[in-house]
Amino acid sequence: MLKRILIANRGEVAVRIIRACRELGIETVAIYSEADKDSLHVKLADKAICVGPAKASKSYLNRNHIIEAACITGCDSIHPGFGFLSENSQFAKVCNEIGIKWIGPTGEMISLMGDKAKAKDTMQKAGVPVVPGSNGILASVEQAEKLAEKIGYPVILKASSGGGGKGIRIAYNKEELKRAYALVKQEAKNAFNDDSIYLEKFIENPRHIEVQILADEHGNAVSLGERDCSIQRHHQKILEETPSSIISNKLRSKMGKIAVNAVNQIGYTNVGTIEFLVDKDQNYYFMEMNTRLQVEHPITEVVTDIDIVKEQIRIAGGEELAFSQKDIKIKGHSMECRINAENPAKNFAPCPGKITGLHFPGGNGIRIDTAIYEGYTIPSTYDSMIAKLIVHGKDRQESIAKMKSAIAEMVIEGIDTNIDFLYQILDNKKFQTNDYDTSFIEKEML
Q1: CB-CB contact of 392 with 303 (8 Å)
Q2: By percentage, how much of the chain surpasses pLDDT 70?
Q3: Residue 273 phi/psi, 5° resolution?
Q4: Domain covering 4-103 assigned CATH 3.40.50.20 in the classification
Q5: Could you tell me if 49 and 29 are in contact, meaning their C-beta atoms sit under 8 angstroms apart?
Q6: Is pLDDT above 70 for 128?
Q7: Where are the beta strands (DSSP E) in 403-446?
């Protein structure tokens, strides 16, 4: 078992990892920027060390400073959480090369799955259905035009190194494709310093379904079921649920088996999520693989009674999974709302500032993952998500009712949040009757 873990992250995910480590009897070292000196994760860790100024590129993205911090504090491992360096293959490789265990898949696997075009090709060879599109990177706009004519419009252009909803454009005809090609190339260059892009058939009105997997270093892998992540704004999730009401038990089993078979074939280890688009006819297509802990992992934990963060740590420590696929049972229904410091009426503009009043809901089946407290000042430098509200009910109807009750009880004063917006989603008849897809917010809420 690992003895001392450096947490290369901040906010609620850092707190989440600290709590898991406490239960396992593992010491923790928090890193923080100058803007985060009063953050909760700094207060809760056994040790804390500053790695730079507020700007992420000089602190939470500064690989050399983080590795130095791990060495100075005698850490034997690093947990990257999500975001920041969590999918940085070079960082993972360097850590392992110098004898610091990376709590996640290998750097080589992160690199393979991080290249969206290579990931698609790899998954196709492993027997996973993929969306029709380019076999690798597009060489020219002319190639894109020929392919679009072949597979039919609409098509979607994506940055090969993309993520977070950046570097994506949909084209419904040749003229739009020409414009989109130049735009996506430029966006990809600006956001990821990599202007390579690829093209896929655009699946209209799909559901975004992801399958959670765990795989140890001894050849054992399991699926922990699926999550429905179709409620999104600006291609970013804000509400997730599990199990998905559009996935039958038969399809759930089939998708899970395909996901497990794929990770076994490619030698993937630790935690991972295979993301699919599912159309109205229940056809499903591989979209991408996230090689890290997901923001929405708590809802899977709630319905399976498996602590995913603890399992990550155990796997990194060389342990075998203590359960097999037949042991995985889905109990009830869980839902997560992401509480963001933002103003939905102003195109979801971030709203940093001091929290002057705070009340979190409680009760049976309600969980809060957060790092905020009354008097805490949310910095303007980082992501706007400040809390996750998770509920667990016997079925979807009870989860919705419980979430509405919890949202109505929540009070966060001093800043704008999306709390009221989330309540409106929950109160929407189409959402309540499971009649929605990834375009729900654009069609129903804006």
Answers
A1: yes
A2: 100
A3: -135, 125
A4: yes
A5: yes
A6: yes
A7: 411-413
Return all residues near 322 (Cβ < 8 A) that are at least 6 apart. none
Out of 16, 252, 292, 338, pick the active-site residue.
Answer: 292
Burial of 121 (0-12, 13-18, 19+ CB in 10 A): middle
Q: Which two tokens stand for residue 274?
A: 């295979």
Q: Decide if 338 is catalytic.
A: no
State residue 444's pLDDT score. Answer: 95
Question: Which tokens in the block code for residue 190?
Answer: 């600006």
Q: Using one digit for the tens of pLDDT, what is the confidence trace for 264-303? A: 999 999 999 999 999 988 899 998 999 999 999 999 999 9
Q: What percent of the chain has pLDDT over 90?
A: 92
Instruction: Tell me the three-class secondary structure of 146-186, residue by residue.
Output: HHHHHHCCCEEEEEEEEECCEEEEEECCHHHHHHHHHHHHH
- Return the CATH architecture of domain 132-201: 2-Layer Sandwich (3.30)
Q: Which fold has domain 207-445?
A: D-amino Acid Aminotransferase; Chain A, domain 1 (3.30.470)
CB 367 within 8 A of CB 375: no
